[in-house]
């Protein structure tokens, strides 16, 4: 009996390993999403590839790089308006991919250029690469992957404010994300309302299925309030799109949550 159990256990682990290996290419495959039409007259943005040192990531047990790639999209007027300052949107990618692959899935800079051409407020958009040895960190504070929460909320924000003409306060910063990045946006935004004034996420992993459509009527001490939630399809035509509209955000509309509800994400 013991020999049969041992053999069954070995077969189970071998089968599990085989399935895991077979799934890896699918996890890393690029998502096919709809290509938006080109907006006539759209002006090009400037794309910069930089590296930001993650002090918060030093000593991580996975041995992941602490100097992280970041893709920065500067609006068309940035080079000319030498004294003009811009709000910044920090965009967090999902699990198993990096920032570069995500740019192809969401079709930037084309989508950004089109939005500006249609009248959206010009802003700086940046995508930090947070892919780790095992696909992602959930943007958590971990000795294994490193403190990606602090990396985003402190290291990246401090670098961008020091090297670009930003509006260096919470009302000049928005945090967005998809899937794992949606969870990261919710987690980091709720725990750092002094840093980010607007949040927006799609297909929030792993909390999306637990969210209910509804309203709340109170604002927190920073003037952040929630007025409504909309639920629908995300940009890839799947899952949920959750949007909470803050009363006082200047970056447009996004998700903002009250600080007292952040304990569950610690």
Radius of gyration over all CA atoms, rounded:
20 Å
The proportion of residues in beta strands is 15-25%
- Summing up helix and strand content along with how strands pair, one would put the structural category as alpha/beta
Determine the N-to-C terminus distance.
45 Å
What is the spatial order of strands in the main beta sheet? 1-2-4-3-7-8-10-9
The number of helical runs is 5
Provide the succession of SSEs. Answer: HEEEHHEEEHEHEEE
| Helix share, percent | 25-40%
Largest sheet: 8 strands, mixed
CATH topology of the largest domain: Rossmann fold
The overall pLDDT, averaged over residues, is 74
CATH architecture designation of the largest domain: 3-Layer(aba) Sandwich
Outline of the structure:
The strands form 2 sheets. An 8-stranded mixed sheet has the order 1-2-4-3-7-8-10-9, with helices on both faces. Strands 5-6 form a two-stranded antiparallel sheet.
